[in-house]
Amino acid sequence: MNAEGFPDDRLPAHLVDGSLYVFRAWHSMPDEFLDADGHPVNAVHGFARFLCELLEKARPAHVAVAFDASLTSSFRNAIYPAYKANRELPPPELERQFVLCRAITEALGVSVLIDHSYEADDLIGSALWNLRGHGLPSVIVSADKDFGQLLGEHDEQWDYARNLRWGPAGVHEKLGVHPHQVADYLALCGDAVDNIPGVPGIGAKTAAALLAHFGSLDALLERIDEVAFLRLRGAAACAQKLREHAEAALLYRRLTRIALDAPVSPGTDALRRQRGDEAHLDELCAKLRFGPLTRSRMRALLE
């Protein structure tokens, strides 16, 4: 906070993986929360508490919450139809709650990022890239390992539920690769969450060892003949698998690499925290049957 009591423009921007926290609330909050029309709103209640806590703790001058709306329409589905095919679509009662979570976010003066072709990861990556160009560091609020590829020298990732924070060095501690290698790493060893198989026979440790030696997927594929002579268990078989699946690995990297050209507003003003809409917030609180504590917390955030 600055001397006038307003958020300091020099503080890092906070970019929130909103869908993750909606899903967490959906699974963890009891289904006894109903709105004025009798519809379940447990995910909205849980998400609202999370967002209030985050804004109270961080007091960011720049903040945005990204939501997924591209589970079947992402540009990655056109490249690889099996992408995320293992995931079930949210049921209608949860889809309805996603809409309400976005409404609460906007009423609190927080920017919402959403697109039908780009995922939340891409929107966060593009926003971070834009902010970095204006000299503003970012904190990515998510537990998703994919975001490691975005972290620059002054950026952080924050696993809010566990209250764990890490920068670029933390990515290497967790995965054994540097941020600029994360997309290559996931292309090699796969990502079961997104239904990306990776190269058969190459697990996380082998992928990290290969990238430590060669530096990148491109260099690895250019020098496949050297793989058989590395001190790796099954090095010869690994080299053969890489030859057989080289094109697939390059395809998978197109899936694992976070896009930096998603449609986000240039500059920093679009992500500046606004004062919010008190009338709309009161209307939502009544509709969602929020208790007095949540209502007072939200009103305080508008001051």
Any key phrases for this structure?
2 domains, single chain, DNA polymerase, domain 1, Rossmann fold, 8% strand, 14 helices, alpha/beta
Query: What is the number of E strands?
Result: 6
Element pattern in H and E: EHHEHHEHEEEHHHHHHHHH
Q: Give the CATH class of the largest domain.
A: Alpha Beta
Number of domains: 2
Task: Give a verbal description of the structure.
This protein has two domains: 207 residues, 5'-nuclease (Rossmann fold, 3-Layer(aba) Sandwich), CATH 3.40.50.1010; 78 residues, DNA polymerase, domain 1. Helices cover 47% and strands 8% of the residues. The chain is built from 14 helices and six strands. The N terminus is likely disordered.
Topology summary:
Layout: E1 13-17, H1 18-28, H2 42-58, E2 63-66, H3 75-79, H4 92-107, E3 111-113, H5 120-133, E4 138-141, E5 156-159, E6 164-166, H6 168-175, H7 182-189, H8 204-214, H9 217-222, H10 224-227, H11 235-244, H12 246-256, H13 278-288, H14 292-302
Helix pairs in contact: 1-2, 2-4, 2-14, 4-13, 7-8, 7-12, 13-14
TL;DR?
The chain has 303 residues and is of the alpha/beta class.
